[in-house]
Every structure is written in C-alpha cells, then in structure tokens.
Specification:
The chain is mostly helical. Helix content is 74%, strand content 6%. The protein is built from 17 helices and 3 strands. It has helices spanning 25-34, 49-57, 67-82, 87-97, 101-115, 120-124, 133-145, 148-205, 211-225, 227-247, 251-260, 266-286, 291-298, 305-319, 324-328, 336-348, 351-410; strands at residues 2-10, 15-22, 37-44. A 3-stranded antiparallel beta sheet has the order 2-1-3. α12 runs antiparallel to α13. The radius of gyration is 30 Å and the shape is elongated.
C-alpha cells in the first residue's frame, strides 16, 4: 500500500486535498468515491519537490501550525468526543471554524481519511510538521485503549503547559532585553561619537594621557574604524548558535552544555530541561506507551543534547533490566530529589504518577525561578552600565583635571 497526494471535491463543491494510503490510484479513486467525493487528480507521494509544488498549487502546504491552533483543535475535539459526536463529524466541524487555511486543509484530510477507514493516528503521521511523533503516539495509544477523549485532553493540557512556559519567559525577558539593548547602544554611541572628539582635543593640547584614557581612546579609535565589525559580531554569534550544531561536529553538545552551566541562567535552563523530560515521559506512560518507546520519543522532546544522552543511557539501563535512574545519574542533570521520586515510582510500579507530581513541582518552581533570574539580571545590567559610563567619564575628565591643575600651578 502506497501513499498518494490527492485532490477531490464533494457534491457541494468543497475541495479537499492531502495524502491517503491505497493499493493503487484506481483503489484510491474507489475509496474517495465511497465516502461521497470525486477524485480530481492524484499522484504517488514521494516527498520530493514536485509533490511539494503540486501541494502548493492546490493551496495546501504541510507546514508547522501555531501551538494555539493545536490547543484549540484538541480542546474542541475532546469536548465533542465527550459529548458523543463521531470523530469524523467533530473534525469537520473544527475544520470549518479554523481560520488558518492550511491547518483547515489538514483537518479536512484527516476527516476524509477517517471516513475512508484509516485510523486517526495513521492519518496524522502523514503530516509530521503539524502533528509531532509524541502527539501521534498519544493518539494511537488512546485509540487502542478506547480512551481517545482522555488522550486529547492530556495533549491539550501539555500544549497549554508549553505555551505558558514560553509566555512566562517572553514576558519576563522583554524588559531586561530592552534595557540591555539600550545600554549597549549607549556604550557604542559614546565610543563612536564622544570619545573620538575628546581624543582630538587631547591631541591638539599635546597632553600626556593617563593609562585609563589611553585605553578608552584606543577603544574609541577601533570603534570608529571597525564599527561594521562590532555590529556584525552579534549577528555572527546568533548564526553560529543556530546553524553551528548542524554544520560543526560536536558544537551542538558544547552549546547545550554551556546553556546548562551559564551563570544566573544555568539553573533555570536545568529546571526547564528536567521539566520537559518529566512532562513528556509521564504523559506518554500515562497513555500506555511502553517505557522503551516512550524514552526513544523523549530524545527529541527535551530540547537539549546532553539531556538526550542521559535519556539514551536510561534507555540502555531499562533494556538491560536495570532501573532507569542508573542511566540518568551518569550525566548529573537530573537533581537528586527528582531522581529519588523517580526511583520510588519505579519501585512501586507507578512511575507515571511519580512523574506527574514531579511535573507539578516544576510547574511551580519554574515561574518563581524565571522571576528570580530577571530580578537579579536587571540590577546587574544597570550596575554594569554605570561602571562603564563612569570609566569613560573618568577617562575623559582625568586629562582635563591634569590640565587645570597645571594651569593653576603655573599661576
């Protein structure tokens, strides 16, 4: 059975396009006709550029969907399924109310595939940019266990947790980022405009400059001559951290280690990484996903390569019949308290329950740590600015004082 890109139309003239599995194009047409659609065109789905271009011509693009759209979808699906509405009708109703046209097309494709006899998780796997492997596994577990409504609720809660964490970080970081940007801009302008003008005055007076003044003057000269290099540095650093892990061997692991050990931010990053692990693993285990499969899925969900290595060690330990915590301990990322709670969960056979309590603990601790970090960062930025401006001011006025004292002595 192969996957086919298709475009079809129903009796009311509504078009739908997406991906459907069938033995052949003739079998695809029969499946589409059986659910009340007429096949307009189809081609074998190979994932190449031609398929992508064809999808774009059909006004359909399988791209990432904003997290809020997914939250609304799973929240609506949970409510409708709980009310006894058939899944196909529920998805179609949500598709009609979805403002994002691309996501609406994806949902219509889900509805058509379900009516054609495919399961929801099978159809979701055809849209990996929209529905992550974690979501498809949770849906699969929910369908097999008969608890699809609960799975949708759990997915919705998890996505809302992710949204809240990102919102807290963004909200807390706006003010310090604005202050830091203003401070850096002020320092750049002082070295670019103010210091060179005073340097010209000192040269014309032929004064012997103190060491601090000479250093500040040299920095000012460098800033004036190589201002483009100074402005380019932040861009290079950002590109290095974004693109470096994919092009420089070992850089990704180095970057993730650095993130976990940064002054001020290191503790917060460790909390977030641990929270992602506990949230994701607990959610997967609660849905009935086997622990080895759940650990494999967690590799790409924690957002940190060092944590992913610790999870791989845990996976190897479980595979060898040992406790998961034996592998986690080797990388010293998980805190001792969390490890003890996981051990209790493993020994009692209620690991998902232990991870739930750990996650709740992180949900309370992370917002407090975010506020603590940025409350410490703001005065550090201000003090740094005062020190730098003071040094520049001192460097500028020291020769003035020498000149004035020399004039006074001459009198």
């Amino acid at each position: 059975m192969a996957d086919f890109n298709y475009r079809a139309i129903d009796a009311k003239g509504h078009q739908v396009n997406g991906i459907m599995s069938a033995d052949s194009e003739q079998a695809l047409e029969i499946r589409v006709n059986d659910i009340g659609y007429w096949l307009i065109e189809s081609s074998e789905h190979t994932g190449d550029k031609n398929a992508v271009n064809k999808a774009k011509k059909n006004k359909f693009s399988d791209k990432k969907v904003p997290r809020k759209e997914l939250i609304d979808f799973f929240n609506g699906l949970h409510s409708m399924l709980a009310a006894g509405i058939p899944i196909s009708a529920a998805i179609m109703a949500i598709a009609q109310e979805t403002p994002d046209e691309n996501f609406s097309q994806v949902l219509r494709d889900l509805q058509v595939n379900i009516e054609a006899g495919n399961t929801l998780d099978q159809t979701m796997t055809k849209h990996p940019k929209v529905f992550s492997r974690q979501i498809t596994h949770l849906i699969k577990a929910g369908e097999y266990s008969g608890n699809l409504t609960t799975s949708c609720e759990d997915i919705c809660d998890h996505l809302e947790w992710q949204e809240e964490i990102m919102a807290d970080i963004k909200q807390a970081s706006i003010y310090p980022i604005m202050i830091a940007s203003a401070v850096l801009g002020l320092i750049f302008l002082m070295f670019y405009f103010v210091v060179p003008r005073f340097s010209m005055i000192f040269e014309s007076l032929n004064l012997e400059l103190p060491l601090l003044t000479r250093v500040v003057v040299r920095i000012g000269e460098f800033t004036t001559e190589h201002w483009w290099l100074i402005l380019l540095c932040p861009v290079v650093i950002v590109l290095l951290f974004k693109k470096g892990p994919t092009h420089i061997p070992g850089f990704g692991l180095f970057k993730d280690k650095l993130i976990l050990n940064l002054p001020i931010f290191g503790k917060l990053n460790r909390l977030i990484v641990q929270s992602r692990f506990c949230h994701n693993l607990g959610l997967l285990l609660k849905a009935g996903v086997p622990i080895l499969e759940a650990l494999k899925l967690c590799h790409g969900l924690v957002g940190n390569r060092l944590m992913a290595l610790a999870i791989k060690e845990a996976e190897m330990s479980v595979n060898e019949g040992k406790q998961m915590t034996e592998g986690l301990r080797k990388h010293h990322i998980i805190s001792p308290i969390v490890l003890r709670m996981i051990v209790v969960g493993e020994e009692t056979g209620r690991l998902d329950n232990s991870l739930k309590y750990v996650s709740l603990r992180f949900d309370k601790e992370i917002p407090r740590q975010i506020k603590r970090v940025f409350s410490v960062l703001e005065p550090i930025i201000m003090v740094t600015m005062i020190i730098i401006v003071g040094l520049i001011g001192g460097a500028v006025f020291l020769p003035m004082f020498s000149l004035m004292s020399g004039i006074g002595g001459a009198r």
